Known about the structure:
Layout: E1 5-9, E2 13-18, E3 31-36, H1 38-48, E4 52-60, H2 63-74, E5 78-85, E6 92-97, E7 103-108, H3 124-128, E8 130-135, H4 145-158, E9 162-165, H5 177-186, E10 193-197, H6 198-205, H7 212-215, E11 225-229, E12 235-238, E13 243-246, H8 259-271, H9 281-298, H10 311-320
Parallel strand pairs: 1-4, 1-8, 2-6, 4-5, 8-9, 9-10, 10-11
Antiparallel strand pairs: 2-3, 6-7, 11-12, 12-13
Helix pairs in contact: 1-8, 8-9, 9-10
The protein binds adenosine-5'-diphosphate.
Amino acid sequence: MAKDLIASFGEMLIDFVPTVSGVSLAEAPGFIKAPGGAPANVAIAVARLGGRAAFVGKLGDDEFGRMLAGILRDNGVDDGGVLFDTGARTALAFVTLRADGEREFMFYRNPSADMLLTEAELNLDVIKSAAVFHYGSISLITEPCRSAHLKAMEVARQAGALLSYDPNLRLPLWPSPESAREQIMSIWDQADIIKVSDVELEFLTGQESVEDDVVLTLWRPEFKLLLVTLGEKGCKYYTKDFRGSLDGFAVNTVDTTGAGDAFVGAMLRKIVDDQTVLQEEEKLREVLRFANACGAITTTKKGAIPALPNEAEAVELLKRD
Ligand code: ADP
């Protein structure tokens, strides 16, 4: 049987968002739970589109950890790589967008279960059976999770998986911007596919431009595909043989949380079926149109996981334009 599993490695947590908009964390009258964590969102995005997905990471052995594992299973994601820590809690993040446009964050990670994942605990069978191994950068911030992340990448690579990296910058979690940049770049050359947003591009290059000469400073000869997502403006793509851009879809956006994860999940879902899309520009453009549509749909509803589209919803939007 052809390998078609997409294994996503890293954090799964609960965002607590205010019940009303435009308030500070201190002013919020209450919060609702919004399950997330970029790698978990990607796994669910893949499964919702009919792909085979697994999540590898650690949760707290508590009500919230069990709830999150249940969400993975309910969405058809294999949770054989999920561990539970009896000594630490599931990570929480309180997040708000204030009326003045400033984002406020408060993290409960001191340390949270995801940060305590060790190399020895990794479910290597899940990792070895993956055709695509996807990860972010939050799992690089502290030990022992950092070493577990590096080990998982190595095992996946040796088993022949494509490595997919979305650095997913969360600056407040890092000790300093310099260490974020340094650690994010420390595994840069090992990926086959990398997706950055325009904001991450600016952070990593130090330049406020999405022109090719700036993007290409991040290109490495080993890469199969480098992507820059541009919010409602769509995306740009770079391979060793061709490059180009695709417009986004105009939709009624209410909350952009998870758009990038939907985009990545949709892209990987298609690549795992046919890796020739990495060599044939017309095929790649078709896949990225699909990924743009999935990203766009995710912005039309509140929250990440509830908003991730299925195949029929994506096809519907593709027909419209
Ligand atoms: P991230 O969520 O990682 O910051 P982006 O905001 O660039 O990434 O979004 C990823 C993709 O989702 C975009 O390339 C685009 O296809 C789609 N998308 C994001 N925001 C919008 C929007 N407001 N309208 C339409 N499509 C969007």
